[in-house]
Amino acid sequence: MIKTKPDFSFEEAAIGQGFNAIAGVDEVGRGPLAGPVCAAAVVLDIHNIPDGLNDSKQLSAKKRDGLFDQLMDCADVSIAEATVREIEEFNILRASHLAMVRAINGLSAPADFILIDGNQVPRGLNTPNQTIVKGDTRSLSIAAASIVAKICRDRIMVDLAQQFPGYGWETNA
């Protein structure tokens, strides 16, 4: 299997359709058995895209940390979560979508087009959008969101591990 790196082609297609603020959105935490699900929405500055963006799972922790810092400095970033209670109440998919919508709504300036990692549009999302299966390996904006969401969730799990030692939550990342 040939591994591909994300590019800006989905964003360029949206720009070609007249959209200006394109957000990538991704979530982290659907697989683990503990902790919240975290989502991030990222609108990249077309003139200042950090080098090395890729699916967070393809990057070392050190590389993710460096890219996270760069993204926080040069992009419009919003982070949100759905709590364990919301996961239990709604189910993990619905909670993931809730976190995604919260992240999108938390951007400092509204996005006018959303690139969504996955094959389903979250309920309540009325902004024009496109779903992209394996979007974190295909779109730079979604790859950026995957990095931000992963760093945030990993930090939450490390904090929980310090509060409640013995469960190994720091490794539940």
TrEMBL record:
Keywords: Cytoplasm, Endonuclease, Hydrolase, Manganese, Metal-binding, Nuclease
UniProt-listed InterPro entries: RNase_HII, RNase_HII/HIII, RNase_HII/HIII_dom, RNaseH-like_sf, RNaseH_sf
Residues binding a divalent metal cation, per UniProt: 26-27, 117
Molecular-function GO terms, alphabetical: metal ion binding; RNA binding; RNA-DNA hybrid ribonuclease activity
Cofactor(s) it depends on: Mg(2+); Mn(2+)
CDD domains xref list: RNase_HII_bacteria_HII_like
Domain of life from the UniProt record: Eukaryota
Catalytic activity, EC: 3.1.26.4
GO cellular component, one term: ribonuclease H2 complex
GO BP term, pick one: mismatch repair
Enzyme class: hydrolase
Gene3D superfamilies: Ribonuclease H-like superfamily/Ribonuclease H (3.30.420.10)
Catalytically driven reaction(s): Endonucleolytic cleavage to 5'-phosphomonoester
Chain's role: Endonuclease that specifically degrades the RNA of RNA-DNA hybrids.
PANTHER family assigned to the protein according to its UniProt record, in alphabetical order: RIBONUCLEASE H2 SUBUNIT A (PTHR10954), RIBONUCLEASE HII (PTHR10954:SF18)
Protein family according to the UniProt entry: Belongs to the RNase HII family.
Protein name per Swiss-Prot or TrEMBL: Ribonuclease
Annotated organism of origin: Cyprideis torosa
